[in-house]
């Protein structure tokens, strides 16, 4: 599009700081993605989760350690997944409440600008997928060059089909001195099918990837100019932040007062500094099951599968099982997803409508709408195996070196049977070692704690009995994870 001479400056990559936004619930990917464990924490396109893929993408660019902005409830999931991917030195910033991308980006920009005034931020969502990493790094070089000149650069993905699920960016005039970099003529909302068909016929229209590259100081100046309420609220939330273990906690009251607004509406669509870099990244926001089918490798019949799946006479479908065996016969163009507690079947053309079903489940107050049967905690996880009127049986797994809170219950007694590993159980004034195939009884009202002192995961079966078995029947007396 532009034959201008490329004039990249020499850039210290350690001044480029990735900012990974790990918010949202990804309800169009239900039943895998749910509020308590959304899509960025799942391995959807490789053996790595989408969050890990994003962090590793930045790691492979040899830039600085990332800042990850996430929901406070997800802090230990984020920390563990970064550890698994061997991403060291990350700063995890906790949002006390979700306020959309503009306040999240402002928080990271304030924190970074205080330490590194000349830093360039590489802002990206934790839940997108990219196949062409080399093309991304080349585009990043151009974006950083533009950022160093005071612009806010975004990556425009060259569309390969009419897509109604993405926003678009229209290229304007070339930016002098930088090859294939253009002023943004305008941002376009998600179009109708007819509008999308018209947009892709013009090479100046690109998909909006949602990635931005700009100096922290540039972003903060534009946020202050266009959304001063966001600037003031987040500035106060950062000034009053606290640290919790290795986490940065934004001040709840101040952050909650920030308007709920995206960076696109707040700044990108208003600023005169926006430039766009066209690129072929093999990019997808993995925003629906149909998008995941398109991104995935397929067999000769156009099928993409994951897990324990058997197909016969099936074409152009996506079938996934995260639990029991799934068999599908004699259908075309379907999405079939099986989890431990739910089954979702949809025509591929209606994949966007899964979100409507989730809303109906919420109105019906079904826990499956937002929570999985397996619930992750800082120390490991638990999952319900069966339950009745006055009893419940759970599987509890505790990671090596971790411990539950010192606690008691008013309405239930518990019986623990160790099936793998070794436990140290606090029961009243006693500390008791419980080994594999041994058990211990905890009477109603007894103060107790479970700890894994070993080097392998501790697994036990918990049998609860009592008049009320809800998770809110817990009084924490002492907790290593700063939970109430």
TrEMBL record:
<dbReference type="GO" id="GO:0016853">
    <property type="term" value="F:isomerase activity"/>
</dbReference>
<keyword id="KW-0413">Isomerase</keyword>
<dbReference type="GO" id="GO:0004475">
    <property type="term" value="F:mannose-1-phosphate guanylyltransferase (GTP) activity"/>
</dbReference>
<dbReference type="Pfam" id="PF22640">
    <property type="entry name" value="ManC_GMP_beta-helix"/>
</dbReference>
<dbReference type="InterPro" id="IPR005835">
    <property type="entry name" value="NTP_transferase_dom"/>
</dbReference>
<dbReference type="InterPro" id="IPR001538">
    <property type="entry name" value="Man6P_isomerase-2_C"/>
</dbReference>
<feature type="domain" description="Nucleotidyl transferase">
    <location>
        <begin position="18"/>
        <end position="299"/>
    </location>
</feature>
<keyword id="KW-0808">Transferase</keyword>
<dbReference type="GO" id="GO:0009298">
    <property type="term" value="P:GDP-mannose biosynthetic process"/>
</dbReference>
<comment type="similarity">
    <text>Belongs to the mannose-6-phosphate isomerase type 2 family.</text>
</comment>
<dbReference type="InterPro" id="IPR029044">
    <property type="entry name" value="Nucleotide-diphossugar_trans"/>
</dbReference>
<dbReference type="InterPro" id="IPR054566">
    <property type="entry name" value="ManC/GMP-like_b-helix"/>
</dbReference>
<keyword id="KW-0547">Nucleotide-binding</keyword>
<dbReference type="InterPro" id="IPR051161">
    <property type="entry name" value="Mannose-6P_isomerase_type2"/>
</dbReference>
<keyword id="KW-0548">Nucleotidyltransferase</keyword>
<dbReference type="InterPro" id="IPR049577">
    <property type="entry name" value="GMPP_N"/>
</dbReference>
<feature type="domain" description="Mannose-6-phosphate isomerase type II C-terminal">
    <location>
        <begin position="366"/>
        <end position="479"/>
    </location>
</feature>
<dbReference type="Pfam" id="PF00483">
    <property type="entry name" value="NTP_transferase"/>
</dbReference>
<dbReference type="InterPro" id="IPR014710">
    <property type="entry name" value="RmlC-like_jellyroll"/>
</dbReference>
<feature type="domain" description="MannoseP isomerase/GMP-like beta-helix">
    <location>
        <begin position="316"/>
        <end position="361"/>
    </location>
</feature>
<dbReference type="GO" id="GO:0000271">
    <property type="term" value="P:polysaccharide biosynthetic process"/>
</dbReference>
<dbReference type="InterPro" id="IPR011051">
    <property type="entry name" value="RmlC_Cupin_sf"/>
</dbReference>
<dbReference type="InterPro" id="IPR006375">
    <property type="entry name" value="Man1P_GuaTrfase/Man6P_Isoase"/>
</dbReference>
<dbReference type="GO" id="GO:0005525">
    <property type="term" value="F:GTP binding"/>
</dbReference>
<dbReference type="Pfam" id="PF01050">
    <property type="entry name" value="MannoseP_isomer"/>
</dbReference>
<keyword id="KW-0342">GTP-binding</keyword>
<protein>
    <recommendedName>
        <fullName>mannose-1-phosphate guanylyltransferase</fullName>
        <ecNumber>2.7.7.13</ecNumber>
    </recommendedName>
</protein>
């Amino acid at each position: 599009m532009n034959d201008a001479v490329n004039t990249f400056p020499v850039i210290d990559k350690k001044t480029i700081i990735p900012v990974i936004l790990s918010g949202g619930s990804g309800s169009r990917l239900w039943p895998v993605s749910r509020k308590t464990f959304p899509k960025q924490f799942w391995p959807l396109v490789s053996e790595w989760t989408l969050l890990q893929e994003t962090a590793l993408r930045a790691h492979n660019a040899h830039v600085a350690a990332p800042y990850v902005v996430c929901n406070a409830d997800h802090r230990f999931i984020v920390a563990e997944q970064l550890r698994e991917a061997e991403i060291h030195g990350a700063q995890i910033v906790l949002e006390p409440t979700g306020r959309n991308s503009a306040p999240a980006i402002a928080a990271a920009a304030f924190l970074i600008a205080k330490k590194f005034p000349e830093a360039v931020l590489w802002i990206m969502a934790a839940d997108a997928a990219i196949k062409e990493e080399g093309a991304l790094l080349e585009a990043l070089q151009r974006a950083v060059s533009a950022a160093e000149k005071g612009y806010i650069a975004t990556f425009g993905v060259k569309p390969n089909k009419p897509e109604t699920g993405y926003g678009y960016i229209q290229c304007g005039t070339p930016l002098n001195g930088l090859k294939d970099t253009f002023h943004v003529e305008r941002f376009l909302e998600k179009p109708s099918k007819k509008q999308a068909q018209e947009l892709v016929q013009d090479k100046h229209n690109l998909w909006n990837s949602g990635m931005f590259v700009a100096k922290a100081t540039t972003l903060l100046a534009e946020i202050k100019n266009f959304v001063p309420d966001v600037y003031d609220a987040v500035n106060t939330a950062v000034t009053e932040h606290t640290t919790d273990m290795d986490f940065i906690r934004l001040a709840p009251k101040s952050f909650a007062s920030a308007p709920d607004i995206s960076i696109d509406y707040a700044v990108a669509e208003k600023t005169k500094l926006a430039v766009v870099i066209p690129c072929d990244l093999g990019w997808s926001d993995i925003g629906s099951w149909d998008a995941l089918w398109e991104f995935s490798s397929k067999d000769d019949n156009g099928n993409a599968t994951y897990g324990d799946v058997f197909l016969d006479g099936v074409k152009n479908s996506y079938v996934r099982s995260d639990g029991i065996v799934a068999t599908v016969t004699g259908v075309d163009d379907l999405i079939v997803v099986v989890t431990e507690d739910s089954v979702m079947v949809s025509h591929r053309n209606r994949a966007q409508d899964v979100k409507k079903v989730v809303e109906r489940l919420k109105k019906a107050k079904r826990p499956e709408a937002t929570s999985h049967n397996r619930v992750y905690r800082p120390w490991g996880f638990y999952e319900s195996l069966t339950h009745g009127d006055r009893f419940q049986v759970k599987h509890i797994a505790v990671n090596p070196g971790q411990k539950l809170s010192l606690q008691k219950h008013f309405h239930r007694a518990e019986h623990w049977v160790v099936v793998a590993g070794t436990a140290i159980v606090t029961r009243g004034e006693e500390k008791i070692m419980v080994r594999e195939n041994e058990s211990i009884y905890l009477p109603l009202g007894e103060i107790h704690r479970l700890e894994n002192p070993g080097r392998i995961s501790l697994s036990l079966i918990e049998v609860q009995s009592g008049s009320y078995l809800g998770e809110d029947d817990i009084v924490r007396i002492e907790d290593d994870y700063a939970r109430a």
